[in-house]
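INFO  loader      accepted 1 record
INFO  loader      residues=189
INFO  predictor   begin
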Amino acid sequence: MEANEKVQEILSDAKKRMEKSVEDLAHALSQIRSGRATPALVEDIRVEVYGQTMPLNQVATINVPEARLITIDVWDKSNLQSVEKAIQKSGRDLNPQNDGTIIRIQMPELTEERRKELVKVAKQKVEDHKVAIRNIRRDANDKLKKLKNEGMSEDDLHHYTDEVQKLTDTYVGKMDAMFKRKEEEILTI
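INFO  predictor   done
INFO  writer      dumping tokens
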């Protein structure tokens, strides 16, 4: 494999991994309550049914008929209790009401203090994902330095590490924008 092909492979791999990190952050942020009901708050809660654990969205239909209400229509009504328990144990501060046919989760109004806590949680998730981006940058730069040992010029190495830094800046910028949107969403009453 030619040096240029190796460089392109390194850059392509770094870009893919950074994109995955941004996607993962988007998923993580979607699970943080903002006072608005959204299926993402509950869809991945693990439920014990039929002797195995499954995500809630694989055993029920999740709807948001109103801004502060989530309804969960469990397909097999014999699993209603299991779903209700899983939601209570999820640690997401949700209080499900089971009427025997459907589960309703009323989203309470968030206090200002709770909103600020949620912003901190979101900020921590963003920071964790930024660390992942920086680790990807470091890996890519280490691989490029190995190519320098194989004969790449100092100028080329400098050029390609700049490319990796531009990628890093782009994806960190996307994460900052995602945080800004989530922060506004949480703080908006």
